[in-house]
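Continued from yesterday's entry.
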Amino acid sequence: MNLNKEQQNKQNQLDKTQRKLAAARSRNDQDMITRFTEEVEKLTADLVQIQDKQKRTLTQKEREIKALPFSREITRAEQADIGQLKKSVRGLIIVHPMTKLGKGLGLNVMTGFARRPF
C-alpha cells in the first residue's frame, strides 16, 4: 500500500479510537478505557513509524538529486513546454519548490537537475 494512503488510514483509525475513548471515559467504563488507550498507543507508534519511513525515503531522494552535478532554474518559457524539455534532456529531474522535496532542498524556484548541462 502507498505510504500516504497507509498514513491516512492509520490517522482515521486513530481519530475513531480517540472518539471512542472519550465516550468510554464519559461513561467511566474502565475495561473499554484500557482497551482504547492501548489501541491509541499502538496506532500512534504505527504513525510515527510511517512518518520516519517517509522521511528516510525523502532524504534519500534529496541525496540522489544533490549528487547530480548540474542544476539550474527552469525559465518560464521552458515551464510552458516542460514535456519538450524533458524529452530533449535525458535524465532530467525537475523539482518544484512547493513540494516536500523542494522544501527539503530549500528551493525558491522550479529547478532542473541533470548529469550534463542543458
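--- second protein ---
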Amino acid sequence: MAFNFQTFKTRALTAIIFVVIMLAGLLWNQWSFLLLFSVIHFGCWTEYHKLVGLIDPAYAEISALHRYSSMVAGWGFMLWMTDDTFNTGGIVLHEVGRLIFFVASILFLAAEVAFKKGLQPKLIAHTFFGLIYISLSWGLMLDLRGVAMSVHFDLVGWMLPVIIIASIWINDTMAYIVGSFIGKTPFSPISPKKTWEGTAGGAILAVIAVACAGHFIYGYDTKLLLMISAICAVMGTLGDLLESKLKRMAGVKDSGSIMPGHGGFLDRFDSLLLATPFVWLLMKLVA
C-alpha cells in the first residue's frame, strides 16, 4: 500500500481538530465527559440504523418510536453506569438512567406490537445487537471513569479512558504508517488495505509507547499498561474489521461523513467500541 501524502494530510488535519474536541470532553469534568460520549452514542446509533437498514430493508421501515426509544434506552444505560459524582440538586443520575432504560426498552418493544401487529424477532435482534455493540460499550466507558475504579488503581478519573483511547489511536496511526511503507501481505479480505506488517507493527509500537509513557511519566504499573494496550491493539483491530464487514454488507465505503478522511462516528470509534468492554473485563478481573 503506497504512502499517499494528501490522504495523510487530510487525515492529520481532521485528527488535530478531533483530538482537541476529544480532550476537552475527556479532561474538563465529568459532565463534559458524559456530554462527549452522549453525542458519540447518538451519532453511532444514527449510522448503525442506516447501515442495518441497507443490509435488511425491513429494518429501515421500523417506526420512529422503535428507532428513537431504542437509542434513548441505550443512553439510559449509559446514565445508569455513572457513579455518585454525577448528581445535581440531590438527583443521582444513575437512578434516573435506570428508569429511562427500562421505560424506553418497553416503548420500543411496544412499538413493534403496535405498528407491526406482532413482535418481529429479526428486527428486535438488530436493535438488541445495537444495544450490545454501541450502548454497552459507552456505558462501560462511563463505568471505567468511575471513582471506585479510579481509586482502586490509583488513577485520576479520566486517565483510564485516556489510556484506552491513546492505545487505539497510536495503534491505528502506526499501523497506517508502517503498512504504507512496508506493508505487502493482506491481513483480511474484509479490509483489503490492511496488511499483516502494518497490523503487527502498529500493535507492537502502541504497546511499547503506552507502557513506557505510563511508567516513566506517571509511574503506573507496567504490567497493567502492557495488558491494557495489548487488548486495545488486538480487540481494536477486530472492532475495525467488524465495522468494515457491516459496511461491506451495506455496500458503503464509510458509515458517515462527519470527519473528512475518517468517515463517520462508527468509522472513528469502531476500534474503541470493541476494545472498551474487554478492558473493563480486565479491570474487573484484576481488581
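The radius of gyration is 19 Å. The first strand starts at residue 87 and ends at 88. Will compare against the first tomorrow.
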